[in-house]
Amino acid sequence: MNWLQIHITVDQAQVELTETLLSSLGAVSVTLDDAENQDLLEPLPGETPLWNKVIVTGIYAQQDDEQLDVAALESFIKLQLPDAPLRSEFLADQVWERTWMDYYEPIQVSDKLWIVPEWLEAPDAEAVNIILDPGLAFGTGNHASTFLCLQWLAQTDLKDKIVIDFGCGSGILAVAALLLGAQKVYATDIDPQAVLATQQNAALNGVEQNLVVELPEQFQAQLQGAQADILVANILAGPLMSLAPEFATLLKAGGEFALAGIIEEQLEDVTAVYSQDFIVRDIAKREETWCRVSGQRKTA
Q1: Could you tell me which InterPro entries the record lists for this protein (predicted)?
Q2: Which fold does the domain 2-93 belong to in CATH?
């Protein structure tokens, strides 16, 4: 079997129409990609950001005994989207799951911490290895802000500590904290898929018994007023600033925190908000843009 790919470049406002059109014409899958190398900020949990210009790709199966009428497909698409650039190509059959998996490699966070996709062997069996299914939800360790949080966890004393992972995504930070010695992690996310992914990735690493992960409405009930020793939140600057008062109630006096998902231009605003209840001790950067803010909750 061969596969036909049809690529259509459209404005963001036309993406939904284009997806629907390709699906209605029999596409077995539809994917989206950036058409202009436009950077996107790390999304909020449950959010799917789009570029201004998007390449929408439909994949069609061509059976050996039934040829696709490519010209007819292209003509119909052009009637609906006359101004959208379009190109098509045939691909030889291959194991698509294996192709997707080939994009991932183990990531070394520090001397003692690695992220290892579940189908690969750990490069250092003596290190703390986070076994991860990257396909479940946002958070593979590749993004600068996630990496910054993992680095911070790796250098923080987590032994027997209570940790909160706020906006847990794939659960990579929660799992890392437990593997690095945390006694218990309370994690939350507004996306039910993130809650499921965190549970599954915790199970992959054998730490699910020390993890509580809930949607926000159940999260506070699980805490029952308890406060954490450590809080980590990898979301975005706006939500981080609005959550500062809540974080002050979730973290013990003297407790340590790390915030990421912040770009350099937002640092002044974030640190100003957090200086009311927290002491900002350190600012770290990665890829010249993404920043991590860390410190302690004030004791008085």
Answers
A1: Ribosomal_L11_MeTrfase_PrmA (IPR050078), Ribosomal_PrmA_MeTrfase (IPR004498), SAM-dependent_MTases_sf (IPR029063)
A2: Alpha-Beta Plaits (3.30.70)
